[in-house]
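Input sequence (228 aa), recorded before submission:
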Amino acid sequence: MKNTLSTIMSILILVVLAAGVYFIVQTVRESASAAADAASAPFEQVNQANQALQTQVAQIRNPTPTVIVDPVTYITNVQSLARLETIQYSVEQVVTCEVNQGGGINSMLFGEKLLFVGHGLVIAGIDMEKIQPSDLRLGGDVLYVRLPPAEIFVATLDNDKSYVYDQKRGPMASTDVSLETTCRQAAEEKIRQSVLEDGILIQAQTNAENYLFKFFSSLGYRTIQFEH
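Predicted structure, token format:
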């Protein structure tokens, strides 16, 4: 009985010692963690201040533009149209515009380079207003039709889809506000040339003849001959 009591007492003492050691370790850990947090707090504040400063600098270097629209709209011209649009092209054109890119130190310091991606819309057809009474004649059962030549009505950039892909400027280069405008104009002209080379006017003329052939046929003309 005495040995059993001694064993129980030993176990209780060990449990108490283990609990004491556990609480001591936890206290040391909490103290170390609090000390680490206290030590890192100034650095965290510095990081937050640095991030805020970087954000402010980015906003200064790349400010959000303020758009002020004149409340008065001036209509300069109103014109009646009788156009038959018969074909539409959607074209993408990449244009590079450069300033002071001759090479050497001059290019590194004063050069500017802009890569522009232009999405263009081109619409072509024939202007029905140009058709004269003499362009339509009936010979027997044949209706002879002479159409005006096809032309491009619209050749413009889609501003919602066109964008500056990349822009590089030397540290001493002055901002050339006309560089993007130059790129846009070059992209628009190149798009126009590309569709002309692709035969947009020939296709527009063919589509117009096919459409008008069906139109005149619906009016009862059995034979329609287009003259060129």
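Checked by second reader. The beta strands are 83-99, 112-127, 136-139, 142-146, 151-157, 163-169, 223-227.
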